[in-house]
């Protein structure tokens, strides 16, 4: 089948350019692509029938491997089903390569089946879109395909990483005849070298001057994968220079004696005197989005005089606190390591080894400890009922050390952030906080479990779980996946938000009561299933639940939405 050799070569290019994992959703128009990757000896293929789920599973694999993952689907509405995962990958900066089969363009608007306008279908939610030719007779066509695939794969990885779309029109015949074999020829790869931006000496000295003249300096860490080296330098900076390090669970900032992790609680009742006391002269931010509104509101209401944001390259200005003064093109870890070394050396030369500069840090720490005590008091009364929040605390405390936690959107990620995870547990946290939808949380966690042998626990609410049940459809479900389902029979977050919670239409138009349990879903997917309705039962079930086994496990925690609401509103009332 020499006419399809350029398509067969795409599979070889994936391998040579470092892509091993490929998600395939079955279809006829995509058959040449599917057969090419399926018959390649070095690619790892996973079949997921639901394209929406396939996109999020690919996202979960890429989150853990930090390498591009390819997704193949057929033409028509199948392509649109990738859109939610594409948007999440774009805003979370996760590398995906989308290979979508298409009909030749002359058949568009000719009442032909599964034919829609696919080139550029994802709009600005991808880094770039490519549209390959449908005919390969001229050598330039093969050259164009080869060059485009090289460029597309490189682009998925270059900063900021993200999804890239390659649309591939295909003519019949799609299937090889009996006895035909695929020849995986070595094809030309085009390597694109990357470098780390280096600040000019004059620029670096100007930054050091601003740092040295700033009395109150604060570092805030947005969403980032866990990086032990980054945590190590942040601890050094805080401990030795007296700099508050503020972070959240989605930024993989753990609870310890130095980091500030309970801002969502103590920044809620803030008065102007305290706000001005905490206001930094210099704010240094790294990472992507922040989770909590209270933290973002604080930085907007009490803006720093100088705000530096550090990212590997300047692609666009992100000014979420409306106070940005300097965008620094540098790797955050390398920047902070050099900054600490230079500042520490300067302090040594000046003989400045006292702890007077720690007053600002101690102000933040005092409030953080008070907030932690308040949360502990809320959740650890003798008569504390089983609620979504109290269950989350128990689960987080018993997570296996060195495991992976995926937090679903809506209330689970917020409850987990209020509790935090202690540094000694060495937990890596992931979440779909690029677009923050519930639509692919379970699929993303399943993808994460496929990418590792570690235990992967997903903490998920009932609406997000039932919305994404197709994550469990494509067997086998990885045995290291642990699903903790908080089932309160509805969209609990709408009882917490002031607006909808006060409306008479709350239950009908905002919550989604359903009356379902996960028992049948677990049985269909061959999961080990358990259910609990008390804190005592939960505590006793978790040790065995987290043990390795031959099957994935689902623990369904049944709670009362009215008791959930009562507990959370009591917490909010007392902190005010």
Automatic annotation (TrEMBL):
Pfam families: TPP_enzyme_N. Keywords: Magnesium, Manganese, Menaquinone biosynthesis, Metal-binding, Thiamine pyrophosphate, Transferase. It comes from the Bacteria. Its cofactor is Mg(2+); Mn(2+); thiamine diphosphate. One of its GO terms (biological process) is menaquinone biosynthetic process. Pathway: Quinol/quinone metabolism; menaquinone biosynthesis; Quinol/quinone metabolism; 1,4-dihydroxy-2-naphthoate biosynthesis; 1,4-dihydroxy-2-naphthoate from chorismate: step 2/7. It is an enzyme of class 2 (transferase). Binds 1 thiamine pyrophosphate per subunit. CDD domains: TPP_PYR_MenD, TPP_SHCHC_synthase. One of its GO terms (molecular function) is manganese ion binding. Residues 10-118 form the Thiamine pyrophosphate enzyme N-terminal TPP-binding domain. Its EC number is 2.2.1.9. This is 2-succinyl-5-enolpyruvyl-6-hydroxy-3-cyclohexene-1-carboxylate synthase. The lineage of its organism: Bacteria, Pseudomonadati, Bacteroidota, Cytophagia, Cytophagales. The gene is menD.
